[in-house]
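Per reviewer request, we include the raw input and output of the structure prediction for the construct analysed in the revised manuscript.
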Amino acid sequence: MKDLYDLIIIGSGSAGMSAAIYAGRAKLKTLVIDRDRAGGQIKITSEVENYPGILRTSGEELSQTMRKQAENFGVKFVQAVVESVDFTQDIKKIRTVQGEYEALAVVVATGSVPRKLGFVGEDEFRGHGIGYCATCDGEFFTDLDVFVIGAGFAAAEEAIFLTRYAKKVTVVARGPAFTCSQTIVDRVLAHPKIEVKFQTELLEVGGDTVPRYAVFADRGAGKTWRYDPPPNQTFGVFVFVGYLPQSAEYAQQLRLDDRGYILTDENMRTNVDGVFAAGDIRPKDLRQLVTAVSDGALAATAAEKYVAQKKEQLGLSDEGQAPRAKDSFFDAELREQLAPIFQRFENPVGLAAFLDDSDLSEEIKGFLTELGSLTDKVKIEFLRKGENPAREKQVNAVLFPTFVLLGPDGAYKGVQFHGVPGGHEINSFVLALYNAAGPGQTIGEDTLEKIRTVKNRANLKIGVSLSCTLCPDVVAASQLIALKNPLVEAEMIDVARFPDFKNKYTIMSVPAIIVNDGKPSFGKKNLDELLALVNA
């Protein structure tokens, strides 16, 4: 029988963390589910100095402190991608790639993601110089000029962050002034590496494989001007012009406004009993840490009352929780999550590693050795590069170090890993093992038929970073295609560990998808979009 939680919180940003702290302190059996490591948007904020009672801290430090507070109250955390939800019954069901979870109440705190601007060249150079996450991609622009588009808090904050890497940062604002607090505005205007151009719009970015020029409109002066970097150089553009709510999974069951935000009352209750929403997933005038935390506290308090009533109605009793310890590659929490997944494997699978003398090879060896100690359903084999050329050819091992997925019969399954699939990639890695061992995730016949439309051999290289929240979905979809069609091969490549690969394809953003060593495509892609790339 599945564990029944009092409360499941989807999302671990400031709203989700606040809800977790209040719920844990109220002795609710609480689980937090998020595709990302805990923290949400606040963890990529370099400095926080407007939160009452805290003079100054980093967003990363504050988010980790929040998580520790929640854990101290017995709250559990799971890193997983939510695939679907069912809020129609007394017991709410949350389906993820790692399994199904059940609770009496749910808080949706999934936040929002950056909005695209729509200038000429935005799609063409996305990942080749145009980005939306300074923390993810800022280092790619070390000693280069960078333009930040926007005038809100995010644009101001990220402009300051990017001065760590960029030679110069130019903030381009459509209006006559910033739209955030004067404190952060003063810091931007006083920074020696930042220039601000008000009443200006970006019209176009152009170039060859990377941006080579940008065209701007000075609305105040009524003229356009062009930026050209020094010869043989490129530049970066980071867009911060608002966000899109992450509410698609809930659109069929929860009431949304015309922009896609989840509607609630003043106590964070949605139109469905037992389901609450908090933080930037709600329509609000001020999207700040302090309002997100307030939302979370209100949602948890309302959920506490609802859960008490529901338990009495259903005749349920309370249950306690046990603390968890940390470990190396696989901490105690992750081991606990993996155990039932390994038990569901219908057949054993294998992983064959081809290692060289690099530090990465040692990390891969440690990761796989520890994995092998967790289950007898995954057989591990280590070989040195060049030790068995015939075997390397058989599994198409070209980029080293690598390890490959083998089926129950020992045959190569078309899935390779160049790097340690930790961080966000642990979910896609485990899902690949599960799909290879069987029974695997449920796949509709229509999806299988689409995968079978690939009639020619295809190689998919997915460039990732372990801090990328969009990468796991792309990796998982590409691996599923490879596992279901023997003509397709999928390789996960940690671009930080393979600089030659990054430079060859001029990768300045992730996920980067390269089909048959052709021109890269960037950004999140679903299975249909990946198949379109393969069949193009």
